[in-house]
Amino acid sequence: MSRAVEPERRLLAIYTGGTIGMRIEGGVLVPGRGLAAALRTLPMFHDEDHARALGLPEDTLVLPPASPDQRVIYTVLECQPLFDSSDMTITEWVQIAQTIERHYGQYHGFVVIHGTDTMAFAASVLSFVLENLQKTVILTGAQVPIHALWNDGRENLLGALLMAGQYVIPEVCLFFQNQLFRGNRVTKVDSRRFAAFCSPNLPPLAVVGADVILNRELVRKVRGKERLVVHSSVERDVGLLRLYPGIPAALVRAFLQPPLRGVVMETFGCGNGPTKPDLLREFRAATERGLLIVNCTHCLQGTVTSGYAAGMAVAGAGIVSGFDMTSEAAMAKLSYVLGQPGLSLDSRKQLLARDLRGEVTLPSGDEHQPSLTCSTLGRGVAQLLSLSQEAAAVREALTPGLACAAAHAGDLDVLQALVELGSDLSQENFNGQTPLHAAARGGHREVVTMLLQRGVGVSTRDEDGLSPLLLAVKGRHQDIIGLLRAAGACLSPQELEDAGTELCRLASRADLEGLQSWWRAGADLACPGYDGRSALLVAEAAGNLEVVTFLQNLQGGAAVQAPGPVSSQSTGGPRPWPRGSRSLEGTSDPSTACPAHPAPPHWAGGSHLPPTSHPIPPLRHLALQKTLKSGWVCSGPWVPP
Ligand SMILES: NC(=O)C[C@H](N)C(=O)O
User: Fold this and answer.
1) What ipTM goes with this model?
2) Where is this region: Disordered (predicted)?
């Protein structure tokens, strides 16, 4: 992942349909034409003066400048017909890939505007069909049409255009509600909330707030300069079978019949299934006939393991482990692997067991990843640096980067090795970050504790002015926020400048966890957003009752006051919390910019947090009618652009 440098970035936005452009006809939502014309009337999507100066054609729009030296110009291709994505199939997704291929040389990146219902399938298929991707492909859509007053489409589409315009991310991604996910890691978890998607087993590649926080090390690296390959030959006879307690062998037999060539089987927990002999016989008979079956857990989070006899029984029937793949990704992978011509069954099984597009986390040992987490590399470097006197200068130069990488990976061993070499763990790396920044952002409690015990400064700001505390807030690492606050960390006036708007945004999304993070970090939750409204007002207007209760409880109990002080240098900007009767005790870190205030009792124990709903996304649907899902079905003809 890198920042795009071209002064003019050209994107192709392929509009396939979905709620984002829908209109109401006869009381129901139907796909709507003319998205480009609608965008043309919205100043956030189009700078008419600049377009006229450039002489851009009707279908090409230009965003207002996001940075003084760069413009994002995008052409909207409207598909014919437009789809509610429930009607889309692998046929249309391959056609989208072919459209990208046809226009690959003309554009810097691609945005695919798609319905949300099957967007996770679409993103997964595209990730396999597009090989050697060197440009950014981002899918996005909306829960509410862009024409509605209160909608998520504008924010999602603008975010996708800006991410694809400003960064080179050589992957198929999905952008929704300010998060950029790897496309083949997502699943739709909510039919109404704006936060419709989650990536249960891989953190987002980027999170957009007041700043764009990139998870650079997660983004796939381009290998060489190989040409884009589009794998149009995919297997359509792939299906999805969800096991349920007592599922009859006869039903399984009926489902596993030809022409089916591949099946994703959603099993219980760690990949377990019933061990009834008649059922296992059906699985074995199917796999011996050459049917490929991949085992994915129906849990939202976690992986298939070999820890249970019930799991081993399933594996013994010739079923391949899907580890932590989503069912969507596993179906797409099966279609891709089965579509490869001339491979033996064993080779296909081997392909399935490999990580092809970042879609799966293989158990350590199955794949060696050159990371500091497998401490051999880190220790090796440390050992090398200790060899000679001359190495001292090299060590000096390498230590900050190495220490930050180790801290970000949560690798205490490497940090310990560096300490033994006499390294200073408070040194800053090339962009001004310290290991504490890296550990706070990565959410590594043990590393944060170790660094604080060693007395590193908590107030260091990186080149962008960000402190470890703000990174912990953005990462929602509540325990780390607590540790940093206890060590005297405060948000600076600069960091609090846009907090009000961010709080309103979180309130509008019912993002309780995000609000709690800011509150724990000492932000004023009553601080107004850009339009003068508070988070409470926004939550009330949006009908987000949990958030309203949370904020009201805080207000009622006077705990709306931040759980510690904001910077004593705070002037203007957000109003500081009244100090009330809190005692100002000595700081544990005299170097900090503001005095450390002990957390008030209601916060220190954590017991006074108002009752909240679980921040974890809701579990995947359990409805039995979804137990048997048919595979990729060809629909009528579709004319790609
Ligand atoms: N929010 C949406 O886009 C849902 C719509 N039914 C679709 O998938 O096309």
Assistant:
1) 0.98
2) 559-618
